[in-house]
Structures are given as C-alpha cells and as structure tokens.
Design brief:
This protein is of the alpha/beta class. Helix content is about 40%, strand content about 15%. Bound molecules: zinc ion (2 copies).
C-alpha cells in the first residue's frame, strides 16, 4: 500500500526540476542553496519542549535544557508533545499555502521530509505505533479535493515505516468561528466534531497525529482529546509548521 502511494506520486509528479520550496535552481540537490540555509536555520531555533512552538525573537528563554512556553506552563494538553519542521513564516508558510490552497499535492513529499527530520530529533517519537491525520469534514474535503494532513501523514508514515490509518478519525461537521465563547467552550465544540470510528484499533496504541500547521493548538488538542478518550496510550503531534510564542 505504501509503495503504491509512492509509485503513484512519482508517476503523476516526476522529480522536481526546480527547488520545490521556492522554485529556484536546485542544481542536483533537494533544495536550492538559499532554501537549504533557511531549513538549516530551523535546527538552531529554540522551541517549547511541550508544544513545539518556536521562541519569538526577544522572548525570554530560561537557561534549562527543557523549557516550556508561557502557555504550556499553565495549560494541560491531552498530548505528550508536538514537534514541527519549522516556524510558520517565510518560505515554509508559502510552501504550505501552495500545497494546501493551490493544490500542489507533490509538495507533500518535501514537507513530510522536513517533518520526518524534526521527528527524528525527538527520541520519544520512536515509540509511535500508528499515524493518524487530522481529518477534514466532508464539505471541506469536497471543496479542496484532498486532505492536506492525509497526504503528509501518508508520506511521514512511509518514511518512518509506520502504519497510517485515514479512516479511524472522522470530522462530522465543519466548525465555524465561535465568537463570544471562551477557549474551553470553543475547544469542547471543536472536540465534538471529531470522532473515532473504531476504538479497538486505537486502544493502548501510541499515536502520532499529523496536521499541516500548529498555531493555537486547539485542533491538535481536540483531536488528541478524542483519541485519548478512545483509550490511546501516548499521543504525539507532528506538524509541518508551528507558530511562535512571545
Ligand atoms: Zn529554494
Ligand atoms: Zn509550549
């Protein structure tokens, strides 16, 4: 199944001639020199040990090996930790937009490659049993034509040699922005939209939830809550990009 997905993608989208991130000349490598240096700079970024969001310029970083952002110091998340390939800005943000809104599905390969690099830097992620993408509600899936998290999950699973299940999690309806509700109420509403179709397939498993972007964390948190209620073991998140905290 996994190799079928790769064969299919390679057939439809032959190897990139230009840099997949910026469209510049890549001269036989995966990315152009400029994108290489930007991607390498992600590895120097400081991030929250829990939610994986990146420290904003000027934020005060405590001198400890594990540090939590101001939100994670106060908030209990239903997941162990989240990691992301890089900050949601610049070339990474533009790439995600082209992937998601302009339908450049082949960018899943490059983005998932960066996500896997980030995952490999986190030892806890070696205990994952099963990869689940954040689902889209049917109406959104019909408009977009594909689930961006599903494509990323498929490629991440392939590269990490982990099973991916696209049917265990569903989103029954699209949630609208809910003005006037506080965070807890909004999150409860959002969590109500997600459902596990077969709890037996999740029980006791260490789950990696895949999404394209982690910003407020509300989506990842809602999905993790549902997966946790279904009896999952440890729950982790992996995103192509994460926001910054200040
Ligand atoms: Zn480039
Ligand atoms: Zn945090």
């Amino acid at each position: 199944m996994l190799s079928l997905w790769r064969d299919l993608l390679n057939l439809i989208f032959p190897s990139f001639l230009d840099c997949p991130l910026c469209g510049g000349k890549k001269e036989g490598k995966d990315f152009c020199n400029s994108c290489y240096s930007i991607i390498s700079s992600y590895k120097q970024e400081l991030y929250c040990s829990r939610c994986g969001r990146f420290a904003g310029k000027g934020s005060v970083i405590p001198c400890v090996s594990d540090h939590y952002c101001y939100i994670c110091r106060k908030r209990q998340w239903p997941f162990e930790l989240v990691r992301a390939a890089g900050p949601y800005e610049g070339v990474l943000k533009e790439t995600i937009h082209r992937f998601k809104y302009l339908g450049r599905k082949n960018l899943a390969l490059s983005l998932a490659g960066l996500m896997v690099e980030a995952a490999r830097m986190e030892p806890l992620l070696t205990c994952v049993d099963l990869v689940l993408p954040v689902p889209l509600a049917d109406e959104k899936l019909h408009v977009r034509g594909f689930n961006q998290a599903g494509l990323l999950a498929e490629e991440v699973g392939y590269r990490l040699q982990l099973p991916v299940n696209h049917k265990l999690l569903v989103k029954d309806f699209e949630t609208r922005p809910q003005v006037g509700l506080d965070r807890v109420a909004r999150e409860k509403n959002l969590a109500g939209a997600f459902r596990v179709t077969n709890t037996g397939a999740i029980q006791g498993k260490n789950i990696m939830i895949i999404d394209d972007v982690f910003t407020t964390g509300n989506t990842m948190s809602s999905v993790a809550m549902v997966v946790r209620s279904a009896g999952a073991g440890n729950i982790f998140g992996l995103a192509a990009a994460a926001g910054r905290y200040f």
